[in-house]
Amino acid sequence: MEKAQVKGHLAAAGAYAIFGFNIIFNKDIANSDAVSPLVLFSLRAVGAAVLFWGASLFLPREKVPGRDLWRMVLAGFLGLFIPQMSFLFAIGMATPLDCAVLGSLTPIYTMCFAFLFLGEPITFKKAGGVAMSLGGALLLIYNSTHAAGAVERTQPLGVLLLLVNGLSFAGYLGAFRPLISRYSVVTLMKWMFLFSLLLSLPFAWEGLLHTDYASLTPTLRWEVGYVIVFATFVAYFLIPIGQKYLRPTLVSMYSYLQPIIASAISIAVGMDLLTWQKALAIILVFGGVFLVSRSRAAGTQ
Predict the structure, then answer these.
(1) What distance in Å separates the CA atoms of residue 17 and residue 88, rounded to the nearest whole number?
(2) What digits encode the pLDDT tens for the residues 238-271?
(3) How many CB atoms are located within 10 Å of the residue 234 CB?
(4) How far apart are CA 17 and CA 242, in angstroms?
(5) Mean pLDDT (the chain, rounded)
(6) Relative to the CA of 33, which of 57, 69, 71, 104 has its CA 20 to 30 Å away?
(7) Is 131 strand, coil or helix?
(8) CA pair distance 97, 196, nearest whole angstrom
(9) Given its phi and psi angles, is residue 270 left (phi above 0), alpha (psi -120 to 50 degrees) or beta?
(10) H-only helix segments in 3-123
(11) How many other CB atoms are there within 10 angstroms of residue 176's CB atom?
């Protein structure tokens, strides 16, 4: 495996490992009703925009022509605004189990979009790898203990929002690799988060002003801080690195780290047990990732 591909694997794995904890914290924030989904998204966009624009001051300036700025507007809409907003609303309308199951479909969407937009072939080995990892993820999800949440039954709108979440982010992964390859991560993300913030402000302005931040518990403040700094700035710094060196389908398959992390946390705190089914599930997940990484046109171009 080439050094560039190793960098891509590490970046994708790191981003989705962060997202694994992010799901837990977002669920806790949603259950508290202290910060609305719109406000939380806007806080994420403000924090990431400030951090990426600040980082850009210490890097060589990249000129972005107008046509690419418009592409970044669309990338921010598909890759940031729609996925994050739909997810933040969905977690208040869906059970943890349904969130996990519907989220596991994203690599399938990505494989299809990569075929449509980039001509990435759907080989037998690639399709088999995706199916193997999906089977492992579902086996893990259905054999894990799920903490009780505020939602006892998933609402139809919650299902729709979770489908929109997966399709939108898969579309972003599948369609924007050429754009991502032309610019540094910081240049790309500073514009994408700025545009996403501008999209959210008309809807979130009143909530941002009237949220009682002083009433947030210390735990909630740490969770919001994690969501802004790690699950937004750091994770979205890592994802474009993965996109530069790996094909979209392979990047999206690292989303299967999320149920593995959730299960590991449950086992660590004594809420769940390590069984042979879970061990087999983890082997299937990583076996599928290996198959896709070895399939034709699965690595760098």
Answers:
(1) 18
(2) 999 999 999 999 999 999 998 898 888 878 877 6
(3) 16
(4) 13
(5) 90
(6) 104
(7) helix
(8) 29
(9) left
(10) 3-32, 37-56, 66-76, 82-90, 96-103, 106-118
(11) 23
- Annotated domain spans of the chain: 3-294
Number of alpha carbons in the 13 Å side-chain half-sphere of residue 109: 20
Question: Is residue 108 a contact partner of residue 130, using CB atoms and an 8 Å limit?
Answer: yes
DSSP 174-198: HH-HHHHHHS-HHHHHHHHHHHHHH
| pLDDT tens string 103-148 | 999 999 999 999 999 888 999 999 999 999 999 999 998 987 766 5
Q: Is the pLDDT of residue 301 over 70?
A: no
Confidence band of 11 (pLDDT split at 50, 70, 90): very high
Q: From residue 241, give the alpha-carbon distance in Å to each of 1, 174, 269.
A: 16, 15, 33
CA distance to 78, 100, 135, 244, per residue, from 142 (Å): 30, 10, 11, 34
Tell me what pLDDT residue 162 has.
94
pLDDT digits 0-9 by tens, 185-229? 999 999 999 999 999 999 999 999 999 999 999 999 999 999 999
- C-alpha distances in Å from residue 43, one per residue of 37, 93, 156: 10, 21, 28
Tokens linked to 216: 């947030």
- Interior angle at CA 205, CA 188 and CA 158, nearest 5: 75
Amino acid at 141: I
Enumerate residues 6+ apart whose C-beta is below 8 A from 59.
184, 186
Structure tokens at 257: 């780290």
